[in-house]
Design goal:
There is one protein chain. Helix content is about 25%, strand content about 20%. The chain is built from eleven helices and ten strands. The strands form two sheets. Strands 3, 4, 5, 6, 7, 8, 9 and 10 form an eight-stranded mixed β-sheet that branches. Strand 6 and strand 7 form a beta hairpin. About 0% of the residues have low confidence.
Length: about 350
């Protein structure tokens, strides 16, 4: 038998069992009741003053929980501390290093006899010390790179490659050699050296700081032109770390050019002109990133030149058959190691083609 509240035939199969189950979905818990905006008056309250059946409850104040408030305060303190340490940190920012002005020396080498010449350029090279030199940029070879204490292999390679690029642009570009172009060389320099570079070309001065021929190789276009674009080159590159923020690259190369008088035809005799360049490059981390360099030392020996000629702005070669009116100390050989000590030297006979 079912209970008094049960259907005569019992609870249907699958139906909720008991009245509580039937109304469970509409039963409100205590927190829901407390949060209600309307509240019913009690019977006692409704007797007096004919009060309405319900009254509006004051809205509950909602605010941040204690844990959330603490979290916000911690974030604010951490943020303030970070700002303070960023402004008042105990370590001094390293002072920016300014590139040194380029120190340059250009030494003319006067021939002891008439300059040898030939209409066969290959024969000139074959009978000179440049016979085994490589042609063009192939003669500027990179050494095996080795990382240093503070610079990686790739950074050392970048320094060596940038130095090579500078040598190629300043010693092998025909537009630079005889056309007066400078931009391809200028863009390789650290921006803080550009004022010195520009002043060198605007107001050339033999002061060891502002000679265009200290920055690059260029011949007087009114006097000489290339007889052969296959310039012979031989030399070395090396890199070393000077401190934790600086790499230095040393370059020592001999360039041999075949020249003839400007405007002459191919039947005119050509002669060889030799330039030995010892350059020292410096790189900080910004230079490495931008593939630029600081050129700090340029030591140049060039001939055949007349000592009386000013080699500051252009090189004015003595060409085939010409002789120097006056020379300097005998025996300076640009193919040999060591540095000349005078402002003008004599080009050793061994440095000339044997025709």
């Amino acid at each position: 038998m079912g209970g008094p509240g049960d259907p005569p035939e019992g609870t249907p199969e699958g139906a909720p069992g008991g009245g509580e189950e039937e109304y469970r979905s509409v039963v409100f818990d205590e927190s829901f009741v407390r949060a209600a905006r309307l509240q019913e008056f009690s019977a006692q309250e409704r007797i007096g003053d004919h009060a309405p059946a319900v009254r509006r409850r004051p809205q509950m104040r909602r605010g941040l929980s204690r844990q959330a408030l603490i979290l916000v305060l911690l974030i604010a303190v951490a943020f303030g501390t970070a700002i303070y340490m960023g402004v008042r940190h105990p370590y001094q920012t390293p002072a920016a290093k300014h590139p040194e002005p380029l120190r340059m020396t250009v030494i003319p080498l006067a021939p002891q006899n008439a300059v040898p010449g030939s209409t066969d350029v290959d024969s000139l090279y074959a009978h000179s010390p440049a016979d085994q030199f490589r042609i063009g940029a192939e003669g500027i070879t990179l050494p095996a790179s080795r990382r240093t204490a503070h610079f990686s292999d790739s950074q050392v390679v970048t320094a060596l490659t940038t130095a090579k690029d500078y040598l190629v642009e300043s010693s092998l570009d025909p537009d630079v050699l005889t056309g007066g172009a400078t931009r391809s060389v200028r863009i390789r320099l650290d921006p803080q050296q550009l004022d010195q570079f520009d002043q060198s070309f605007e107001r050339p001065t033999a002061d060891g700081r502002h000679a265009p021929t200290g920055w690059l190789v260029r011949f007087d276009p009114n006097q000489a032109e290339l007889a052969d674009s296959k310039i012979r080159v031989q030399g070395t590159l090396s890199a070393a770390e000077t401190d934790s923020d600086t790499l230095e690259v040393s370059a020592d190369h001999t360039f041999v050019y075949a020249l003839r008088p400007t405007g002459s035809d191919e039947k005119a005799k050509a002669s060889l002109f030799t330039v030995r360049r010892e350059l020292h490059f410096r790189f900080d981390r910004d230079d490495l990133r931008m593939h630029q360099t600081e050129l700090v030392v340029s030591y140049v020996q060039a001939g055949p030149l007349a000592c009386a000629e000013d080699a500051t702005n252009h090189l004015r070669p003595l060409l085939a058959g010409e002789t120097a009116k006056a020379g300097g100390p005998a025996g300076t050989d640009p193919y040999a190691t060591g540095s000349a000590t005078s402002l003008c030297g004599s080009l050793a006979a061994s440095a000339q083609p044997k025709l």
